[in-house]
Amino acid sequence: MNSSQQVVFDKPKVELHVHLDGAIRVQTILEIAERRGMSLRADTVEEMTKFIIVETPGTLTSFLGKFEEYMHVIAGDREAIKRIAYEFVEDKAKEGVIYVEVRYSPHLLANTQVDPIPWDQTEGDLSPDEVVHLVNEGLSEGQRAFNINVRSILCCMRHMPNWSMDVVELCKKYRHEGVVAIDLAGDESLNCETNSGHKYAYEEAVRSGVHRTVHAGEVGPPSVVKEAVEVLKAERVGHGYRTLEDQALYRKLLDQDMHFEVCPISSKLTGACNPDFTKHPVITFRKDKANYSLNTDDPLIFNSTLHLDYNTAHEYMGFTEEEFKRLNICSAKSCFLPEDEKDELLHKLYEAYGMIRSTAF
């Protein structure tokens, strides 16, 4: 992998798939640990980075284990949660992102206990509601300070179906304060028909007009993508690489203009895709003019930036500036903003890209 950080696409960008708890500064983790009197495995940025980052392709399980290195320092702390949200916006502004949808699990950031008890009786250091409020505050302050547009997506976790109704209710409560959608993340082997808490939550999302995306086809089979689209009524698919293993499903989703949230660096280091970037599924998406975005997923753990994902696509996957423009237009069209705000975002991109809306795309 070429780790150089030269900028191959220096125009405004849209990012739709990035996790807040996977996009924290190492320095911030160290400072919060010191303030809270909590221990970490190292006390310098260089040493702590070594414990957190994934450097060679592994498994999704080994990747998820990296969160255990630092999440205990962040979760349940008001000041920490607001701070990481604010700093996230600053970091994205520096990458040339003008619109981003950032996702997180309110329950995990609340430090909610993972016990099989009813969703309305879960206990943690904070309530999930308080977490959403704090994140919203941090994101709002960041928007004003750094002049970019930020919205958030709340994640259900596949292994905790008893949290999911709580999540959709929070989406409804905060829909006018920056929360634009619901997501489902975690172990794709856990079926949503069996774990019906997710199914009921997504049915409520549909009834309530809450937008929907689902992690699917990252490491799981195409059937998980089919379930996401047909059962959970997902409007976008997080990752979706394994869709290509079912050509009938893939063609159907192409016809529906389904949006795939692609994360190149992530997909190599989690073992989701062939480590040879010249064989990445997004090359097929590009050739087929599919509707997709390029995203970082968890830049802290992959020691990456959005520039690195773009550089990788350019160097190994045949991406041109015109394709970067096209995929960002697709991203804007597939974002979860209201139509009038979406039009404003598209206008900014068309203007920055020197395009005339009536004749392009």
Automatic annotation (TrEMBL):
Assigned EC number: 3.5.4.4
UniProt keyword annotations, A-Z: Cell junction, Cell membrane, Cytoplasm, Cytoplasmic vesicle, Hydrolase, Lysosome, Membrane, Metal-binding, Nucleotide metabolism, Zinc
Recorded topology in the membrane: Peripheral membrane protein
InterPro entries: A/AMP_deam_AS (IPR006650), A_deaminase (IPR028893), A_deaminase_dom (IPR001365), Ado/ade_deaminase (IPR006330), Metal_Hydrolase (IPR032466)
Protein localization: Cell junction; Cell membrane; Cytoplasmic vesicle lumen; Lysosome
Adenosine deaminase domain ranges (all copies): 12-351
GO BP of this protein: adenosine catabolic process; hypoxanthine salvage; inosine biosynthetic process; negative regulation of adenosine receptor signaling pathway; nucleotide metabolic process; purine ribonucleoside monophosphate biosynthetic process; T cell activation
Secretion signal, residue range per the UniProt entry: none
Reported cofactor(s): Zn(2+)
Top EC group: hydrolase
Coiled coil: none
Main location: other
Gene Ontology, cellular component aspect: anchoring junction; cytoplasmic vesicle lumen; cytosol; external side of plasma membrane; lysosome
Catalysed reactions listed for this entry: adenosine + H2O + H(+) = inosine + NH4(+); 2'-deoxyadenosine + H2O + H(+) = 2'-deoxyinosine + NH4(+)
UniProt entry tagged with the keyword RNA-binding: no
CDD domains: ADA
HAMAP family: A_deaminase
Family, as annotated: Belongs to the metallo-dependent hydrolases superfamily. Adenosine and AMP deaminases family.
Protein name: Adenosine deaminase
